[in-house]
Amino acid sequence: MAGPLGDLEAGGTAEPPPTGFTDPDSLTGGIHPGRLVVIAGGATTSTVRRLACPFCHGQHADPLPCTGMTVLIIGGSGFLGAELVRQATSVGRVTATTFNSRPGQAPDAPWHRLDLRDPRRLGEVIDTVAPSAVINASSGAADWAVTADGSVRLAQMTARRGIRLVHVSSDAVFSGASRSRYDETALPDPVTPYGAAKAAAETAVRLLHPDAVVARTSLIIGDGDSVHEQAVRELAAGTRKGALFTDDIRCPVHVADLATALWELASSDATGVFHLAGPDALSRYELGVLIARRDGIDPCLLPTGRRADTRILGALDVRLDSRATQGRLSTRLRGAGEFLDTTR
Known about the structure:
Blueprint: H1 4-9, H2 22-28, H3 33-40, E1 71-74, H4 79-89, E2 95-99, E3 111-113, H5 119-129, E4 133-136, H6 144-161, E5 164-170, H7 193-208, E6 213-217, E7 220-221, H8 227-237, E8 244-245, E9 249-250, E10 253-254, H9 255-266, E11 272-276, E12 282-283, H10 284-294, E13 304-305, H11 323-326, H12 336-339
Parallel strand pairs: 1-2, 1-4, 2-3, 4-5, 5-6, 6-11, 7-10, 8-13
Antiparallel strand pairs: 9-12
Helix pairs in contact: 4-9, 5-6, 6-7
């Protein structure tokens, strides 16, 4: 490889190239030979099957954190964040959470307004809550300042304070060019601005906070209130334009399963990359049919199309392989064929 990175691989003394983030550059001085492996190396996962809680030094019968562990949820007013808060507060666990525009519905969790673009405010929230662990379930879409830079700041601050970090990522970090499923060792190759921001965030988290968990997931489905389920109902009713693509493949996961798995990881001493997606690979149309049948809607009302025939940017076939992660967790990640089946 030519250029500075090639010189570093060869053990040269080229000026370290920038990481692409202002704060990490001031902290690390750029990419050095000893750190290049951290950024470009394949992802690894913990080999621990039954995960021990590092805070009470015991084993949990359930995946939720022990009562002596305070957890801060970044993005608690979002779809996933709200489920994380619900599960914790329903059993009396100590949880604090953040919101950007308006707080969520959970009255038992203290809410803190936070814009991840504001490092001063982020530090204030962390120091006020003094958490044992932080779960970053925020969604800044393709906004680099939130999705990428915000995750960098959070990784820096939690690492400096010795706070455990679980960073939620996405299958959008992959291009879909692979002919096989993407397991936890697959390297990101995004094709969208959102995917690029999530991939950059992953790299920064693993560089700045080596003991953190990066948890990639896929389409998140609930019991009728996810954006995907709402879209199916609106398309069937004719109140929304568009189509459900037959060539856009993902591995949907139920929000309750995902949240439970994230709590299990947050309560553990596991580190590295984990995949939290369902085992069923479905097209958007196939998923829509399952949702329609559950909701008593005629699937014939759903408009179909091919994403390849449009100019919509994005990966077509991204199948997360979660088998290695599933083998390490007690939480079972159900497939959409199971959790959307009304006959069970």
